[in-house]
Amino acid sequence: MEAANAELDRLLALKQSAATSTALAPAGSATPAAAATAAPDASGAAQDYIIVDVPRIVGASIDAVDGLLGEPDDAFEWYPGSIAQLPLGGSERDYTVRSYTVWVLFDPQGIAKGIIVQVGLAADGYPLDKWPVILSRFGLGYTKAPDFKSSMGLRWNNSNGYTIYMSGVPVDNLEIMKRP
User: Fold this and answer.
1) What is this structure's pTM?
2) What are phi and psi of 4, to 5 degrees?
3) CB 72 within 8 A of CB 103
């Protein structure tokens, strides 16, 4: 665990020195999302390190997420009760971010509630005990130890306002949802 924490500290220092983060304009505001200062191009190590900056995605509108991740590969609606993550229904938009497929889930008002990543993670080869590094690659940084731990999965019931689940050996599934 000490090695994972040391790696996380090193990578977070890179992130802080090479990238700037800004909040997106709230959904429905008159300020366009383009007015936010963008992070530097992929010229910085931290920019390459972060897969998806979840805090910039969650709470953003569909248009703002499209602006950050590009046009989706697929989009469809979920009916109320179809999936646990969206009890009132909503939509999903699937994006390709480098070698990862990122599913962003939106509530019925078009506001992002969370992400699921299942394609691309296994190629990174992370074991579950590298969870601090994995979470940092999604912009979450260090958090408390998981609330649930097994040989195949970890779950946080409330980590800085997110429910987080990761599983697989190596990790091949990650779900990060904003808590209500």
Assistant:
1) 0.74
2) -65, -40
3) no
